[in-house]
Specification:
Layout: E1 3-9, E2 14-20, E3 25-29, H1 36-48, E4 52-57, H2 69-76, E5 80-83, H3 87-91, H4 93-100, E6 111-114, E7 119-122, E8 125-131, E9 140-144, E10 149-153, E11 156-157, E12 160-161, H5 171-182, E13 190-193, E14 199-200, H6 201-207
Parallel strand pairs: 3-4, 4-5, 5-6, 10-13
Antiparallel strand pairs: 1-2, 2-3, 7-8, 8-9, 9-10, 11-12, 13-14
């Protein structure tokens, strides 16, 4: 059975997730830990629960979702999984950090690319990769049909959707992809977003003001 631990990190109030199962295997999703105390909090949870990190997953590569990426890779020495269309976004992060007034080194580490309908697994627990561009060109959602949950990144929020005024955002594309790919799923599916509270597909399908 999958369990999810969420952390709200960095000045952007980004949600970092640790997804783990009864075997003690885990994914870190969107490591946004920025301060030393945030990093210590994340590491303590993993150590205290005797978790083995299998991969680092990115829903997308905007800077608020990767502030702890180098630490995570250096600490656990496992591949980073992401969509190749967000490689440019990842590469732009040092420039974006400079705009926000801080220094950020380019990421150095192993990256493996995911595409639509790929799967990533923790033992018998499997996530399907859904490519849902619009917030960024390589935005992906990790969806577990068996557990009725998804990690949506900045695609879909409680009562809102991801920003589309950022570099290579596309509002019409995001609306179309949410409608065609996410809103067809079971309404009971829990949605764990990149910011804010969890929600459900059914609630957003019925009440989200963007649709």
């Amino acid at each position: 059975m999958l369990q999810i631990k969420s952390f709200t990190f960095n000045p952007f109030s980004e949600n970092t997730y640790v997804v783990f199962n009864g075997n003690g295997n885990a994914f870190i999703i969107d490591p946004g830990n920025f301060s030393e105390s945030e990093t210590a909090q994340l590491q303590k949870f993993i150590v205290d629960h005797s978790l083995t990190v299998q991969n680092i997953l990115l829903t997308h590569a905007h800077i608020d979702h990767v502030l702890g990426l180098q630490w995570a890779f250096d600490t656990f020495n496992v591949p980073v999984l992401m969509h190749d269309l967000d490689q440019e976004i990842l590469d732009r992060n040092p420039m974006d950090a400079n705009r926000f007034g801080f220094f950020f080194k380019p990421f150095i580490g192993e990256i493996q690319y995911l595409k639509e309908n790929d799967t990533v697994s923790l033992n018998a627990d499997t996530f399907q990769v859904l490519h849902v561009p619009g917030h960024s060109p390589g935005s992906i959602v990790y969806y577990s049909e068996a557990s009725k949950l998804m990690i949506s990144g900045d695609v879909l929020f409680e009562g809102s959707i991801g920003r589309t005024d950022l570099y290579k955002g596309n509002h019409e594309q995001l609306i179309e992809n949410i409608t065609a790919k996410l809103f067809l799923l079971d309404g009971d599916t829990e949605v764990y977003s990149g910011h804010g509270n969890p929600t459900s597909i059914g609630f957003e399908r019925d009440h989200n003001p963007f649709f």
